[in-house]
Write a structure and sequence with these properties.
The chain has twelve helices and 14 strands. By secondary structure, it is an alpha/beta fold. The protein has a six-stranded mixed β-sheet, sandwiched between helices. A four-stranded antiparallel β-sheet has the order 2-1-4-5, with helices on one face. A four-stranded antiparallel β-sheet has the order 12-13-11-14. The chain is globular, with a radius of gyration of 22 Å.
Length: about 290
């Protein structure tokens, strides 16, 4: 089943509370996007949920069983950034093929044939030493480890950092292919939001260690629109709506509004000479965080 549940997780480093009462349910066979500003707690949360770090309080369960110190359950979870930190620490003099052999020994669901295919997809030289790889190639190695792990629950923390636009596109296509052909659950933490938006079924927004929302991506975007027009008309129109963002430009104003009834919204907006557009996930994220 592979249903992962976090209950009231907290984690502090010194006086700073990095994760603050997070409760979260990851349903099986979904692609989640974990988005938040730098320092919001994304990496720390993934470390706690994957069992790589211990929370100060709260619990993580997989299918109702505690993950903590349960190797059988931990074997079902792969946190690619954590693996990269373990395997790539320091000036690693091993060759790529040696590193992947280490990953094969660590990860119980490892698919060696799939790993070889991914090496070709990312044009990775197995004979190169880890210490001599570019940032983009290090990202490719981490992606290969995550995907070829075949772990039922896989976390990818900023997987496309350092990749060019062509390789980023390839990663998202490979991720969708693997998701479609398997029963795996993926959580992708990324700053490049709009590129990933079409892949993410559900979005988790975190800010200052707290979850702001967890929602289906399409449903979230369908409830928001960007509306621009004369300031006095906008001010009259928004009286019946929740405004998530507002900015003025001389005699004009642009707002992002949230609604529950799209037919009512269409009828209301048609009374004015407004420009109306859909909100992108990145724009909505920026609006929600002010």
């Amino acid at each position: 089943m592979n249903k992962l549940v976090c209950s009231n997780l907290t984690k502090s480093y010194g006086a700073k509370k990095v994760i603050d009462g997070v409760s979260l349910t990851l349903e099986p066979h979904r692609i989640y996007g974990l988005i938040g500003r730098n320092g919001a707690g994304k990496t720390t949360l993934l470390g706690l949920v994957s069992g790589q770090n211990y929370p100060d309080s709260g619990d993580v369960t997989l299918d109702g069983e505690p993950v903590k110190d349960n190797q059988e359950l931990l074997d079902q979870i792969c946190f690619s950034r954590e693996l990269s930190q373990i395997l790539l620490f320091g000036r690693d003099t091993r060759k790529v093929k040696q590193l992947l052999k280490t990953a094969e020994l660590i990860l119980p669901y490892w698919d060696n044939e799939y790993a070889k295919r991914l090496i070709g997809e990312f044009e990775l030289d197995e004979g190169k030493r880890i210490a001599n790889l570019s940032k983009g190639m290090l990202s490719a190695v981490t992606i290969i480890i995550a995907l070829a792990s075949k772990s039922p629950i896989t976390f990818l923390d900023e997987p496309v950092a350092g990749l060019d636009v062509f390789m980023r596109d390839k990663f998202y296509r490979l991720l969708l292919e693997e998701y479609t052909e398997s029963e795996r659950t993926f959580v992708v933490s990324t700053h490049i939001i709009d590129e990933a938006a079409n892949v993410l079924e559900d979005v988790i927004i975190i800010d200052s260690g707290k979850i702001l929302l967890t929602e289906n991506t399409d449903e979230l975007l369908s409830r928001h629109r960007i509306v621009s027009g004369r300031t006095d008309d906008i001010d009259e129109f928004i009286k019946g709506y929740k405004v998530t963002h507002s900015e003025s430009h001389g005699k004009s104003k642009t707002v992002c509004v949230e609604f529950d009834d799209y037919d009512k919204f269409k009828a209301d907006v048609s009374k004015y000479d407004f420009d109306v557009s859909k909100a992108s996930l990145q724009k909505l994220f920026m609006n929600l965080l002010g």
